[in-house]
Amino acid sequence: MKLAIVILNWNGEKFLKQFLPSVVQNSKSADVYVADNASTDNSINYLQSYYPEVKIIKNKKNGGYSKGYNDALKHIKADAYCLLNSDVEVTQNWLDPIIKTFNTHPNTAIIQPKILDYNKRAYFEYAGAAGGFIDKYAYPYCRGRIFSTVEKDESQYNDVADIFWASGACLFIRAEIFKNLNGLDELYFAHMEEIDLCWRAKNLGYTIKYVGTSTIYHVGGGTLQNTNPKKTFLNFRNSLFTLTKNANGFVLGKIFIRLILDGIAALRFLIKLKPNHAIAILKAHFSFYYYIPNILAKRKLIKTKNKYFTKTTIVFDYFVAKKTTYKNL
Fold it and tell me: Residue 91: inside a domain, yes or no?
């Protein structure tokens, strides 16, 4: 399998200096690319000076995660891509279990490795952990992380398992399938676009797997911290986009309940004296209303919509029933 590792960069010279060495050292079986989103720092000069073996693709503008990868991958010939965040440290032999899984499971379109926290290395990392799922109303959660509760890695997820979505921090996808799906949805700009991509793949009948014998360490929040209201805005709005586009059944009923649950989340932010995040949820809803015609048009293009959830509401399980780990769900 010809594998291309593609690191999206925007003014990330600091991350390239810190994390690119581990990628180059431990990825001899793959080609390594940096897709640069019109950086204004010294990223390109640094790469040309210290890593001439790394191929550089220069995007014309910073179109975010989705457009950045869509533009870059058009220039890469490979059997599969690894979409890798710039703030990721990889480990020795991390690619071998991934390639083996692709080769032995031909219907698997997308794979995610185990993602641990770079700064708290015994714990899973928020963005993906041991593979993702969503509930009926498109609230995401993971094996190893539900809302703000992150589990310690005690080898409980050292398996190969079917999941619903793979984290965009490190997402392997077959090139042909990426092209058949028309890539990532550029309306998202950033956050949740990988869940939409995975959902569309699932609606076409492909499987998505987590491979716990491959490990990476992710810093997380390199672009937007959890404390940034813009991240709240993007997560809530883009989750509504994803639900509306892809869910089976009576989607308007799901959206109505989801809007109510979002309102409760906004009240919770107000109670916790975080009004900027409550306002971000309100703005997310208005932006969603604005784009509804666009989203519904995209929904019509998705012919098959399969059941996508096993939990009706992770919100109730976590906040009311106090089920804070995946095994207790």
Answer: no
**Number of structural domains the chain divides into:** 1
* SS3 call for 201: helix
Q: Confirm whether 66 is domain-assigned.
A: no
Q: Please give the residue range of the domain that contains residue 286.
A: 229-328
At 44, list the tokens: 């390109």
How do strand 170-174 and strand 80-84 relate by DSSP bridges? antiparallel
CA dist 67 → 46, 119, 236 (Å): 24, 29, 20
Q: 49 in a domain, yes or no?
A: no
Q: Sheet containing 145-146: give its strands across.
A: 132-134, 140-142, 145-146, 149-150
Query: What is the reported pLDDT for 26?
Result: 98
Residue-wise pLDDT tens digits, 185-243 = 999 988 999 999 999 999 999 999 999 999 999 998 655 566 799 999 999 999 999 99
Q: Which residue bears the tokens 């869940």? A: 195
* pLDDT per residue as tens digits for the range 119-155: 999 999 999 999 999 999 999 999 999 999 999 999 9
- Whose tokens are 């994803």? That residue is 242
Confidence (pTM): 0.95
Strands 207-218 and 80-84: unpaired
Is 213 within the bounds of a domain?
no
Token match 């109505």: residue? 256
CB 116 within 8 A of CB 153: yes
d(CA 311, CA 43): 43
CB neighbour list of residue 72: distance below 8 Å, 6 or more residues apart: 6, 8, 33, 35, 57, 59
Q: Which amino acid is at 37?
A: N
**According to the model, what pLDDT value does residue 227 have?**
76
- The number of residues making up the chain comes to 329
pLDDT at 190: 86
